[in-house]
């Protein structure tokens, strides 16, 4: 179902001769009293219409995100993996973010993908769906029980056992053992305190033209928030700055899920 069309904010017929539509910068327009009279009444009306426009914009935005999440349907195996993630207190990528991962994997013809943070397999399934049929996902997590759930999810999604290599252990212990320039895409969704180290390892692992993707970089809006922030948010800000200023990366920050930071290695 498509989201509703934006409301037409037109003047009341009885006032049409004395009012005109002027842009307000929000993508809509509002009425302006051409006679200049009745300022108090006009102010009250403007306040009410302003609240109405904000509510309409919010409603349209919510409908748009709902459409985006439903646009690429997730099968039963993915939905079960999501349920397991929620039961474990994890926050997997949203359906929209997952579809972007699938698209990115397909766009680079990914045969070798490294994933930092297996979780219960939600992001892994999306990546595998976008990879070449002979591609292998190497995924790292500190929690063996999560990887066991992911292994079951991959099997339920119809992927052969040899399509995924699950390695337990801290990422910064495992990644140095992976081959230089041996990967088409590296996806990072793990300890935010280590994102700068993940970036350094990703640059080593990626071939020229490969992609690095970080999930959750907006941190529920805290990355752009004011006032004191926890160390993990400060690290995310450093990550955003470093990727933006890098001479070897072509970056883009996508406002899907809790933010996807994507960059191609030159």
UniProtKB/TrEMBL annotation:
Keywords: Methyltransferase, S-adenosyl-L-methionine, Transferase. Residues 1-52 are annotated as: Disordered. InterPro entries: Cation-dep_OMT, SAM-dependent_MTases_sf, SAM_O-MeTrfase. GO terms for molecular function: methyltransferase activity. The keyword S-adenosyl-L-methionine applies. The keyword Ribosomal protein does not apply. Residues 1-10 have a biased composition (Pro residues). This is O-methyltransferase. It comes from Streptomyces chilikensis.
